[in-house]
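Quick question, first post here. What does this chain look like in 3D?
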Amino acid sequence: MCRAKRGEPTAATSHPMTVNETVIALIRPKPDLDLVAGEPADAVAAARAATEAPVGIGSLASYATEVALSVKGTWKNPAIGSARADGVLTAPEAGVPLLFIEVDNCTEEAALLAAKFDKYARFFQRQERDTDGIEKPLWRTRWSAPPSEEYERVHPPVLLVFHQTGQRSAKNQTARAADLTRHHRQGRWHREGGYHSYDRCIPIVATTLELLREHGPAGPAFWRFGRDHRQPLLDAIGNPRRDAYLARRRQVARQEQRRRAEREAAQREARRPVCKDCGRKFTDDRWKAVESSGWSQPRESHPHLCEDCRSRAVAAQAQAEADEREHQEKERRRQEAEEPDAARKAGGWLSRFRT
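> Answer (accepted):
Ran it through. Tokens below.
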């Protein structure tokens, strides 16, 4: 972002180096202690402290530098007036899906710094039809990021890193840039939720290279424009109070859903049939079986009984039917056995009439 003015070659040559130093401070690579074995004690102590420090964000592959942000034209041939990011970080595994990085060696006027955010705003607002046929912000056709919420579409965050090598004060540069970019980053207060809504705003976060080296991304090195204290990077680019409010709403919704489910379960339980024989309540399967109806469903023979009592009733009915069949069979055999005697008796009476 920072471009040296004419007559400041030192600052111009140091800008790429400052970008590199910023990337290293964000990554915080861990030294190999075996390689410093035998070195002076202070070097070994510094290496050991670096290995024990909180981890950074991403690897070298997570960063790209000098990335064109075309407000018109194409990615390879951006139109005049397009911005060019000093760095772009993509580390979704670390909670940073997309972060644009701008570096200033305190050589550029704050007004020029702020003007670049006008280009950022135009870039974020540019819409293009993607390969799926859906129109979306141009930046989403290149980088992956969580989908925008229906009622709040926040632009990707931008990190400003100031390095005190120029004549301007980093503190004054930060304050002036915050004031000049207010219309791009200032949210609206949500009284009910107790948070700021940043719909269509650019989250702008500032730090110095010194603070970044000292604390790393996990430390309180980052000032979100509009807030009154420094925070770790993830908190600074995020909206913790809004997250807490939404978490409370989700908790309330879950509790209400649980209470509604309990009420419905109690009402359903009150309708559960009771066995007319043993007095026990029907199981869900038994209840479903007796309520099932349709031409293809067999008629339930004992809808007023639970499964156990139904089984006993069916068994008793089957036994009664078997006993009845056995009785009828015995009666049939008895009648068959008596038929010859009846025939002989009938024949004896007929012979008397013949004589």
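The radius of gyration is 42 Å.
DSSP finds ten helices and eleven strands in the chain.
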